[in-house]
Amino acid sequence: MAELAAKPISELKSVGAGKRAENFAKFGITNLVELLTHYPRRWIDRTREAPIADAAEGVDVLVIGELRSVNGPPPGPRRGPSRVTATVADDSGRLSLVFFNQPYRAKQLKVGSLVAVFGRIGRFNGVKQMANPTIDVLGDPDERPRPIVAVYPQSEKVDLPSWTVLRAVDETLARCKPRGISDPLPESIRERCSLMGRGDALVGIHAPETFAHKEAARHRLAFDELLRVQLVLVMRKRAFERDSVGIRHVIGGELVRRFHAGLPYELTGAQRRVIGEIESDLASPTPMHRLLQGDVGAGKTLVAVSAMLVAVQGGHQGALMAPTEVLAEQHAAGIRRLLDGLRVPDEDTLDGERDVRVELLTSSVTAEKRRDILAGLADGKVDIAIGTHALIQDTVAFHSLGVVVVDEQHRFGVEQRAALRAKGVDGGAVPDVLVMTATPIPRTAAMTVYGDLDVSVLDEKPPGRTPIVTRSADGPEAEEEVWSDVRAQVAAGRQVYVVCPLIEESEKLEVASAEETVARLSSTELTGLRIGLLHGRMSSADKEAVMDRFRRGDTDVLVATTVIEVGVDVPNATVMVILDADRFGIAQLHQLRGRVGRGRHASNCWLVTTPSDSADELIPDSNPRIDALVESDDGFYLAEVDLELRGEGTLMNKDQKGRSDLKLASLRRDRELVQLARETAHEIVDSDPELADNEELRQELTLFLRPEDEEFLFKS
Ligand code: ADP
Ligand code: MG
Question: Do 546 and 602 sit in the same domain of this protein?
Fold first, then answer.
């Protein structure tokens, strides 16, 4: 592979150093490894192809033929959907094609080229026609016949026809043939996991003889992608465990026992289990690095507090970092309530003990208060610190930071986690880190995205929740039903949230739209109700005041921008109305919905959408995200759907780019393969921590991960 990576694509006879090489470069293909890992996006099975004359109406068929004519949309102002028409012919007959709303087809399709067309045969004005078929340009009509034709990704901007790629790949594979392509994977592993050889797999993916061959090839190459990622993650985790000394916390202490005994409810089974998992990490000399996943309302706060109290019990401190000040404030208030009356030993006091001291450190704390808190953190009188990333500023020194909880991981960078870990000063001991997220991701995806963390799952909600009925409202009539439900609930003494359209480009516009919503609702549908407004541009004090009024029941309807997404807990609120719901992602909608259904009254969630006005569009109006939310209230199920709809790319934020090496592997479809790759990575790293005996594998890690990815993956 290293040798192939050193060979520029221009060395291929079929490419050369000119324009063609430039076009390859625009696709990110500059050398032969990049070429061989530029995988087809589809494979066309020529054995299934039908002569046009035999293609029956109403049946899906694959037709391969030459383009005879292509006609673009007529010039002038557009009326209705754009239309591109074309004719394709084979030895048996002709077929007309029509593409709606795909104006680029006029440029893409060139008369004289060979195309594969897949779709359902219909009839239009007495002529056989296919509307919006799948179409792939294969190349020249005299292309070498093969049973299965690989089709490569196309771009509207770059002229790199599929057959050009195919020829370059053919040439490369032919030139590799005499020497063979070496395989970095030990024979024993290959056999046990039933994986074909690397060289065979590269042939199978680009020029398969059969579909079984292609599938086996994909399997092998996808495994390689997953293995590389897992190797890096496992190596990093092991290195971290090896190089850092943690605190051996003493578990089973009095403080945690009293805390649990004083709760007004029983722990759920899942809370018990997860607290157990965390405590065994805390007791071990290796620093904890654990992810806690739990749906909204699963009771993560309690678990976090238990973990921090283990530290406090042993004379250490706990810290909780939240992504926003509002959330930090709410955590502080909630945690103070939870810890109310709980005492810790303190020799400096008269009766030898004092209340557990919880402090909130945010940028809005006064200078004087801040000095006081900082002093308390430094001398250990503050037991639990809660704040935003202000907590990891250099000026903040802890007496002995034992447990760090990071809430809402997806907004926290790895660097920030690392910085917080560095805050541990206890003789160089590294604090234990618990990362909490309310955005569940599927287990195998978690293995990859958070592969360097251990994972705990709170998969059981506290009892006594009433299920939330979710409905979608599309169009003015449906919306009337929404507001009448709101009025009825308010009349019954309940409260309501209305979430305003999300306007990502501008907070200012978002605020304006929220103000407009308040004005509209109070003068029309919700006249006479007490309506409050909450948005992100208000001062913390104003926000708090609005929230207080709502909590006390002095406001019936709270109109808010997405600032209420996190943390708000008002059991009497039973209706959640989300306007322009189709602008939100699944996870966000699910979070928002989790704001209701927290009390004993039945709750409703309305997802309001506006029907699109282009009635002539061929694509039916349906939103799979909305449908998924209507169907299910299970965060893990929704996470699966989300993954399915958006693909894995979106799971990974900027600093997780290293995982974007996944071209063939799918975290969703290849769950077993992810598992297999993880086990294999463990096996390899456990016997060869630095990959000293697996030089080729080690080389590939550097080859396939870009320097910045590698830096990210290998550091911390
Ligand atoms: P999360 O942070 O996972 O969204 P919270 O920790 O905010 O959830 O808990 C949600 C609500 O459930 C809180 O009001 C909390 O007091 C309550 N709660 C937590 N654990 C239990 C339990 N075991 N039984 C009953 N209620 C619980
Ligand atoms: Mg919470």
Answer: yes
